[in-house]
Amino acid sequence: MGLRIFHGSIRKMLAVLILCSSLPALGVILLLGLHDRGAAIANAQRELMASIQSFSDTQGAITASAKQLLDTLANMPEVRRADAAACAELFAVVLQANPIYGNIHLLGLEGNDLASGRKSTSASFAGRKQFKDSVATREFATGEFMIGATLNVPIFPFAQPVFDTGGTLRAVLTISIQLSDFGKIFAQAHFPPDSFFGVTDRNGIRLFRFPDDEKRAPVGQPINPEVYDAVRSGPAHGLVRTTSADGVRRITAYRQLRLSPDKPPYMYMFIGLPEDSIYAEAARVTARHLGIMALTLLVTLGLGWILGGRTIGRRLEELTAAAGRIGGGDLTSRARIDTAIAEIDSLARAFNGMAADLSRDIAQRKQVEEHLRIISDNTYEWEYWRAPDGRYIWVSPSCEKISGYAPRMFTGEGAARFLSIVHPDDKKIWEDHLVEVNSVHPEHRELEFRIVKPSGESVWISHICKPIYGEDGVLLGRRGCNRDVTESKQAALALKNSDERLRRAELVARMGNWEIDLASKTIDASEGAGRIYGVDGGALSLDAIQAAPLPQYRPVLDAMLRDLVSNKAPYSVDFKIRRPSGEVVDIHSIAEYDDANNVVFGIIQDITERKEIQDQLMETNRDLEEAISRSEELAEQANAANKAKSEFLANMSHEIRTPLNGVMGMMQLLQDTGMSPEQSEFLDIGLGAARGLVKIINDILDLSRIEQGVLELRQDGFDPRRTMTSLSEIFQIAVKSKALRLTFAVDEALPGIVYGDEGRLTQILFNLVGNAVKFTDKGEIAIKAGLVSQTGDLLHVLFEVADTGIGIPEDKIEYIFKPFTQVDGSNTRKYGGTGLGLGIVKKLIDAMGGYLQVTSELGKGTTVSFALKFSVREPRVTNDAEFTETLTAAEIVSCNVLVVEDDAVNRLAVTKLLENLGFTVRAIDDGDQVIEALESGRFDLALMDIQMPHIDGMRATRLVRESGGPYAKIPIVALTAHAMKGDRGKFLAAGMDDYLAKPVELEDLKAVIHRVLAKGAGR
Q1: Are 422 and 450 a contacting pair, CB within 8 Å?
Q2: What is the pLDDT of residue 820?
Q3: What is the pLDDT of residue 285?
Q4: 751-769 b/e (C-beta count within 10 Å ≥ 16 → b)
Q5: Sign of torsion, CA 803 808 814 818?
Q6: Which residues fall within 8 angstroms of residue 703, CB to CB, at 6 or more apart?
Q7: Which end of the chain has fewer CB within 10 Å, C or N?
Q8: What is the pLDDT, as a whole number, of residue 868?
């Protein structure tokens, strides 16, 4: 009976056939509609969970970054000592580089703001959750909803405790983050209309919502209590269906954010999609397809009934086949367009439109999937998904930037390659970690280790991993995050090395530094300062410093401190202290005041040894004065005294120069290391003090040479203007500490190059300017140089040093140029010194054929004028200079140098100075090892100390010269503390090639080596 439907006319049969052929397509449309509806809901739920996972992971990374940043800042010295200015500058740099952060505060234990990266109007943070939790738990803590006082927008804060080196809680660091960037990410994700993204704090107070809805969902107000109760008491993540305040029914994905699995949530994240939007498109597509199909059926049936015939039947068969292919899933199939029969042509176009709609729907679903992939691929760090069996399912593209290897190197079976790039010293750390996560399945793990890039570069990695579970609770694997922390590791190591270098420098120079916070009455002192005050190995207290000075010094020191704080007048003073052991020592102290931070800071130096030397020199001075007064009656005794003086000067010069050479050598080595500006300033001051001691020794020796009439004068070309500039640099710190003006003026008529003894001219000006700085407390010091006359090649040049200092009494002017004599010779005089400087100035000017004149007025200042003769004719160039011009720097750097020095500190200092210049150095400690050393290696130069325990330098040199070996003619330079007249001649007569007196300046060392090697090259 049923088959009779196929009997009848062609029209009927065609209509029935058309109807039957349309049934598969109609079934497909209905099935696809139902499938799309279910798939839309399932896809939406998966996309929601993936999106909320991505957003929460991003916030987790931000929280971890904030914790690491606060931890790094909390361990920095300026933060530990609450240096407000340094902290504010540091915080500002961090905020500029990280715009996601709202502000950084350093808070006292009372909640007061000690320092901040941006200007803040908040008076106290004592009541803030993050502050109270961090103080109570002494750990990193999170806050809750608040409006930023600086940015006036909702922010979320964190806090980190700050401990001193002893583990005592000293302060709290807080940082706030802005959540507005989540809105930008959400907007780019192309969610349907009426979708939203929201964040609440632990109390359900809305922190952020996108899009904004201030009327129905204002920020700062509680969210729907039903939703909050569900997510608070539910699992760590999930879905809820609710009707929002705007009347929209939504499916909302949520996730709890915790600092660790055992801690309560500190934040909740939500993404909601309207239910209608989830399957509306599927319903629209199904309705459109059904409408098209219905229209197609009506048109086709009508045409089939009217037209019939073979052509229509064949076309209908084609349409039937196309419908069958579409039903089979081939959405690229299309019906042939033939305009011969308009109705069938319309039907074919309708079929093609239906297929195009289906293709478009699938493409849209793929686009959504692609959006989710883009979010996953653009994570901040090197992230990956590790399956339970150990395979890497997914690795983020940032892997290649951090490790140097493409992500495909680790996915699938390549997971085992990860161990091959771990640094050999850290492989055990990674292997133990794998054993733990594979057997114990911990919720959260963090560790640090190194990997090696293909270039050989080592990279420090901070690794975090946690398990991933499906909706059914099944373990899907672990999500890992690797962050490059090499820079922070290197910075911490550099800071540690810098502190160690400073400690060693203070040990060598017997120096220390300190800083007193006048508000808190606390002190921060270096190890060197504690050593000077006799509390080596313990903490130096403010009470110990105040009780240490001997009673007679306390009133003066108190007055200077009051003047320092009131008038910001830096002080430099010598006084005596008594250590806890009862030992009395002399110290030199320099201090300045930082009014911005109410801090007094400075350096101290143990000068006991120097004071003892000065006392010995003064005693010698008194002995010499007594011997001179009796010279006419006791000529023979005077000669003996002069001989004793020469021996004393020679011994004192040697004994002082030897340790001083070690001190200056170490300081010069420190100058080539990376230091802070403050450390460099302290080192420059220490090196200047050491050079000042060298000057005193040289002044004494110069005085002896002048008295014996054996002073040597050079005739070298120099620029007087450059000489003035050098003086300006030398006295820059001294005049700055006293707030003086130092001016220089050189006559334009004076030639650019003159010939004479620049060193003696500098010595004269150095003494006169130094004297002017010492006796001038305010005003200025003016130095002038002018051409008086020129006769042929001979120039007469007048120099003038004028100050606004204390002046000199008229009856004392004739005495100031006598050696070892001062206007005020009392023990209580304000201005120290040896009394040698002006005496040497007078004798040097006389020896150079010049004259000197002094005018002075008490209380107004002093002017010292002197005239010297110079030449404009260039002297003949010596062979040494010619050899120097022929030797290249490359030839010098390739040389091997033998250092013979018995003093360990001097040996280390000279060795390091030479190595810094590029030389290859071998050092031995006595002359009896010289021959053996020369026979065991090739050396281009030997630096020979003179005074050594077994075989002295001169004897060792003669043994080398007389050996007849291939090394017999090696250039040998005397490097010695012997600096008296005749020493140079003795050393050259012993077979040495040149001579360099200790303490050694780096430039002098380079010059003498250059000169000696150049002579050897010209032989």
Answers
A1: yes
A2: 45
A3: 63
A4: eeebbbbbebbbbbbbbbb
A5: negative
A6: 819, 836, 839, 840, 843
A7: N
A8: 92
